[in-house]
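Posting this for the archive.
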Amino acid sequence: MNKACAEFIGTFTLVLFGCGSAVIAGDVVGVLGISFAFGLALIAMAYGIGPVSGCHINPAVSLGVLIAGRMSVSDFVSYVIAQCLGGIAGAGVLYLIVSGKLAGHDLATAGLGQNGWGAGYLGEYGLMSAFVFEVVATFLFLIAILGSTQNGAPAMLAGLAIGLTLVVIHIVGIQVTGVSVNPARSLGPAVFAGGQALSQLWLFFVAPCIGAAVAGLVFRSRLLAAEA
């Protein structure tokens, strides 16, 4: 239960502060600010809960770790449940906060940091662009995670490396999909935003899981193993 609790808190934090930076402060901090909010939240949790659960806070990460042979199926199931619940809870608290704005917060127009693609969404990229970005970005994200946490890597620097990788991914991809690379991060805001966010949610489960699975296979095959 301590691992599941850690994953819940970590995912809660990522969604609240990451999506919160976009919803509450996006006009002030811009793409760079939002990107660093996601990355810094991940770095904080990596050192805060990493010793307990490894700080996956992302079902795609847990899938990659499972396929790489670094966790059990039972842990995988409990992690994913905790991550999804944490993502929903984080989005719920964010919704409560923005709902208290005196001028009001219209979910239909202002949103809740949900992911998406197509006409009317940020850079208005199409389905193919969104799918390719999420697969490739998640694959590279998992390469950074699995590589920096393997035997022989400088373990104390892993959280920093992983968090900064997430920053770079957001800088490039916010205009494409808002950046998911994390089904739980996408699920939370979509539950409250509804509509298009829910109808497009499938991509933010399928594409990240494909990218993560391929990365997991790369490390399971020891193609990128650090040790002899």
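The mean pLDDT is 96. The radius of gyration is 17 Å.
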